[in-house]
Specification:
Number of helices: 10
Strand content: 25-35%
């Protein structure tokens, strides 16, 4: 696979995930206890044996760069493998990246240095399992200029994505980004075929379209809005690859965790007895940095009231659940839940401490936050909204200890 270069776009601001993106890029947001969102894309690359990777960053990239340095320093450089984090370098102008296509155009120097025949372009903020080799195989067999990963989606949700019209050979006849009335799949009026933001280009074609787009007046320099529609209109060989899921469930799993509600829901997908997304498949491992911490511990259990227990939850190393109940939760490393507390359907980041006799429901709590004793969250959303962000779905997002203290004191 030495002729394939993988580029991961990881520069998004993630405004809809604020305040989780207040101090970090969206792909660096914790997910599933131990992981960061970008780990799922990088694990797919590693499992697909694509190990020549450029990660393009932009906003608040320090946390992401540090995570990749600590977690993904497993490439064998003597075998030609690498993973490089590239911030904006202003090689061609003084602009930040103006769009997804412009991000690659500004890094044509690095692409040329790698001398690929095919370029795989991925987003660093989606949760899924995919073997990219299968997509490359179709790309080469059809002699496509561009192959785009696609998934069938209920037509009611399709207007959030780019939507394809294809012929019987999977060649794209038309493509529209976020259409108000999405085209449906022939014979299935309830579903549409939408873009996953996964692209394989012939390298020489990619360079041609990027250079043409860079100087085109009025272009927003985006693949979905500009480059792909023009390629289809110019009758370039653009095909879709129907997503083949390595998650091995009845329903295909691909999540764009672009909002706080979708982020919370995707985490909750992990904790059921038969999870929608399986982290425990040793044939398709999800990789990350595993901290050197002691195992999780559960103490002061009282079987009569189920305290000192965590049920239907993910509990990371270093956690201590002391005389309390954790139910349908995701706990990051070194979380401490103190006695007589109950935490339900919540996501707690690294080193959160929950004080005694607290009750928390449907919350996301940022790392290092100390929850005062007798705190109640998620039971009176109108009151919580005075101090914290509360989503449309009723999720309370706590970003600091200071706001919790104000909430407690009703300042």
């Amino acid at each position: 696979m030495q002729k394939v270069l993988t580029i991961v776009l990881a520069g998004g601001m993630g405004e809809r995930l604020y305040p989780l993106t207040k101090e970090r890029a969206k792909p660096a947001v914790p997910f599933g206890g131990l992981y960061r969102i970008i780990d799922f894309t990088l694990s797919n690359c590693f499992n697909s044996h694509y190990r020549r990777i450029l990660v393009l960053t932009q906003y608040k990239s320090n946390s992401l760069a540090r995570h990749i340095s600590h977690s993904w320093n497993i490439m064998h450089t003597e075998l030609g493998e690498f993973i490089e984090v590239i911030p904006p370098q202003m090689r061609v102008n003084s602009n930040w990246y103006l769009g997804t296509a412009d991000a690659l155009y500004q890094n044509l120097y690095s692409i040329n240095q790698a001398d690929p025949e095919e370029v795989l372009i991925l987003s660093g903020d989606h949760i899924y399992k995919m073997n990219y080799q299968k997509m490359l195989r179709q790309h080469l067999e059809t002699e496509a200029d561009l192959t785009i990963g696609a998934i069938e989606t209920p037509v009611s949700d399709a207007s959030r994505f780019g939507v394809f019209e294809v012929d019987n050979s999977s060649r794209v006849l038309s493509f529209e980004e976020k259409p108000p009335q999405p085209r449906t799949i022939p014979g299935n009026p309830s579903a549409a075929l939408v873009s996953m933001g996964i692209y394989i280009f012939k390298a020489k074609v990619l360079k041609e379209v990027l250079e043409a787009d860079a100087f085109l007046p009025g272009s927003s320099h985006d693949f979905g809005k500009d480059v792909i529609p023009r390629m289809v209109e110019n009758q370039r060989a653009v095909y879709v690859f129907n997503f083949q899921d390595e998650n091995k469930k009845d329903a295909k799993y691909w999540r764009d965790v672009g909002t706080l509600d979708s982020y919370w829901e995707a985490n909750m997908d992990l904790v059921s007895v038969d999870p929608h997304f399986n982290l425990y498949d040793r044939k398709w491992p999800m990789r990350t940095h595993v901290p050197s911490l002691p195992p999780a511990k559960f103490v002061f259990a009282d079987p009569g009231v189920r305290f000192g227990a965590a049920v239907d939850s993910i509990v990371s190393p270093g956690c201590i659940v002391s005389g309390s109940l954790v139910d349908h939760c995701v706990l990051g490393p070194e979380v401490r839940i103190n006695s007589y507390s109950e935490v339900h359907e919540s996501i707690l980041f690294d080193r959160v401490v929950v004080g005694r006799k607290s009750r928390i429901r449907r919350a996301i709590i940022e790392k290092d936050v100390v929850v005062p004793e007798k705190t109640v969250l998620g039971y009176n959303l109108q009151e919580d909204a005075r101090y914290f962000r509360v989503t449309e779905g009723g999720i309370v997002v706590v970003e600091s200890t200071e706001k919790l203290l104000a909430h407690q004191q009703k300042i």
